[in-house]
């Protein structure tokens, strides 16, 4: 893949696709992690003398319509503050924008345009015509084959990977392709069904796959325990059994918690009780792993060579069900392993327990992070790979 850092950008029109899809409330950005992650790329392009145009989506607006509530205006404002220079938001940009040297223009939400999501060729060609160099830097949207992530890369005069995208691919590749062992992954979330492919691919490569949340409940049931009224998927019990056997056959394991935190209600004031896994009552639901389990899992994290974390193991929004996630988060922070965390809820847990500085790499990807873990090819990366070889051949 051709990299932005290898190119002379001086006075070039450089169109950068970032993932600035951030949460916005009352016209203000409430978490600017993705904006901050894009800053080194934007600064590098400016330092290289580029005329910078930024593209991003925000939310999932109705296609073909301008919708003020999903405008990138709050992002432009935050970006202006962080960059320390004016970022000009342009509402109508697809037919051409004049950008001065040293200027940064933010093109309004790409998902207001008809054809963006369908990866329409006509739209992609128009985007490509805006630039001399297209920089794909939106790792968080690299799993979407859309006009601004994939189509434009086919037709731009030059298409390359931005520094953030390159960093993400390196960090994730490092964790999965040739990991320092033991490799321990934590995959948690409410349903086995939505993370089945991740569980499938990780169960073949990891030494230990720690499951949590509703996913763990299905595994607890698969191990033959009654899970009371816990969220779980009875239909997927055979799958859970198969995954446990598959992990074992490859020399790894998917451990089942020995104790759990239960409650009879699900709310902020619910009373938490610790139970052995074979003592869950019919009216109880599992909302966290228990203290013995958390300690045992924490030990294996401390001894790990590589850790991949996606998903809090309990309902950590309520403190009485957050101890398992806190203990694992602290073990990750204390571990000398190369650790990588990704996904919206995971990053909220990383923030809540204040370990952001002690995780080796925090991914900006949600869905893209998961698809990478599943071993899927990200279409916006694949097109850069094929353009890369073609561009290298053209360069002689
Ligand atoms: C994300 O937040 O995961 C990305 O920005 C992709 O957004 P999407 O799921 O709406 O395509």
TrEMBL record:
This protein's UniProt keywords: ATP-binding, Cytoplasm, Glycolysis, Kinase, Nucleotide-binding, Transferase
SUPFAM superfamilies: Phosphoglycerate kinase
Location, primary (coarse class): cytoplasm
EC number: 2.7.2.3
Binding site for (2R)-3-phosphoglycerate: 34, 111, 144
UniProt binding sites for ATP: 195, 317, 343-346
InterPro entries per record: Phosphoglycerate_kinase, Phosphoglycerate_kinase_CS, Phosphoglycerate_kinase_N, Phosphoglycerate_kinase_sf
Recorded catalytic activity of this chain's protein: (2R)-3-phosphoglycerate + ATP = (2R)-3-phospho-glyceroyl phosphate + ADP
Keyword Cytoplasm listed: yes
Subcellular location: Cytoplasm
Cellular component annotations (GO), alphabetically ordered: cytosol
Gene Ontology BP term (one): glycolytic process
Residues bound to substrate: 19-21, 34, 57-60, 111, 144
Listed pathway(s): Carbohydrate degradation; glycolysis; pyruvate from D-glyceraldehyde 3-phosphate: step 2/5
An annotated Gene Ontology molecular function: ATP binding
Top-level taxon: Bacteria
Assigned protein family: Belongs to the phosphoglycerate kinase family.
Assembly description: Monomer.
Name of the protein: Phosphoglycerate kinase
Organism this protein belongs to: Natronospira elongata
Taxonomic path: Bacteria, Pseudomonadati, Pseudomonadota, Gammaproteobacteria, Natronospirales
């Amino acid at each position: 893949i051709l990299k932005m850092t290898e190119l002379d950008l001086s006075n070039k029109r450089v169109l950068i696709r970032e993932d600035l899809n951030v949460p916005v409330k009352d016209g203000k950005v409430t978490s600017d992690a993705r904006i901050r992650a894009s800053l080194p790329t934007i600064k590098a392009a400016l330092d290289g003398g580029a005329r910078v145009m930024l593209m991003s989506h925000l939310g999932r607006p109705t296609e073909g319509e301008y919708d003020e509530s999903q405008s990138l205006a709050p992002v432009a404002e935050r970006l202006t503050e962080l960059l320390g220079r004016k970022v000009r938001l342009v509402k109508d940009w697809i037919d051409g924008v004049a950008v001065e040297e040293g200027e940064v223009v933010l093109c309004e939400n790409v998902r207001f345009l008809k054809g963006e999501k369908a990866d329409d060729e006509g739209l992609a060609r128009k985007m490509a015509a805006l630039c001399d160099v297209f920089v794909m830097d939106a790792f968080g949207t690299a799993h979407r084959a859309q006009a601004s992530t994939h189509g434009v890369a086919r037709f731009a005069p030059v298409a390359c990977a931005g520094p953030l995208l390159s960093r993400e691919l390196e960090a994730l590749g490092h964790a999965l392709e040739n990991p320092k062992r033991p490799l321990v992954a934590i995959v948690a979330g409410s349903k086995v069904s939505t993370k089945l492919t991740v569980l499938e691919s990780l169960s073949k490569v990891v030494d230990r796959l720690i499951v949590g949340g509703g996913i763990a409940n299905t595994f607890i049931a698969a191990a033959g325990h009654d899970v009371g009224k816990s969220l779980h998927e009875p239909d997927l019990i055979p799958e859970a059994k198969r995954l446990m056997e598959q992990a074992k056959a490859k020399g790894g394991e998917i451990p089942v918690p020995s104790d759990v935190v239960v409650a009879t209600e699900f709310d902020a004031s619910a009373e938490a009780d610790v139970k052995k896994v074979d003592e869950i009552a019919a009216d109880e639901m599992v909302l966290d792993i228990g203290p013995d389990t958390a300690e045992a899992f924490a030990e294996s994290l401390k001894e790990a060579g590589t850790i991949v974390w996606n998903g809090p193991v309990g309902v950590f929004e309520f403190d009485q069900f957050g101890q398992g996630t806190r203990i694992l988060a602290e073990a990750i922070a204390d571990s000398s392993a190369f650790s990588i965390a990704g996904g919206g809820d995971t990053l909220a847990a990383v923030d809540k327990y204040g370990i952001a500085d002690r995780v080796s790499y925090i991914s900006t990807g949600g869905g893209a992070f998961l698809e990478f873990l599943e071993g899927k090819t990200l279409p916006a990366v694949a097109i850069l790979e094929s353009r890369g070889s073609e561009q290298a051949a053209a360069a002689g």
